[in-house]
Amino acid sequence: MNNxxxxxxxxxxxxxxxxxxxxxxxxxxxxxxxxxSQLQRAVVSVSANIAEGAGRNNKGEFYHFxxxxxxxxxxxxxxxxxxxxxxIVKEGEISExxxxxxxxxxxxxxxxxxxx
Length: 116
What we know:
This protein is mainly α. 73% of the residues lie in helices and 0% in strands. The two termini are 15 Å apart.
């Protein structure tokens, strides 16, 4: 249906994944299979669901996968706030990530509205 690599929201989601992986490299080793792993899986899911939806057969399926991507984007945001709460990071250290998450959420929403 769409070439996902041309979608700006997919490009931003890839950027987000790189930043989250860079951040989680500094997490304590005891979090490798905990919050670190969950953050990495959730952030990869954002771009993957955009791509999968773009490759589907109709607008309804694309819309559905964009919704899943929005959910994963929210999961990443929540996990970052958990990371702040448990003292792994400080909010000031991840302000760029939080802004990018908000930008991606808005882009996904706008793309969904064009598909209705």
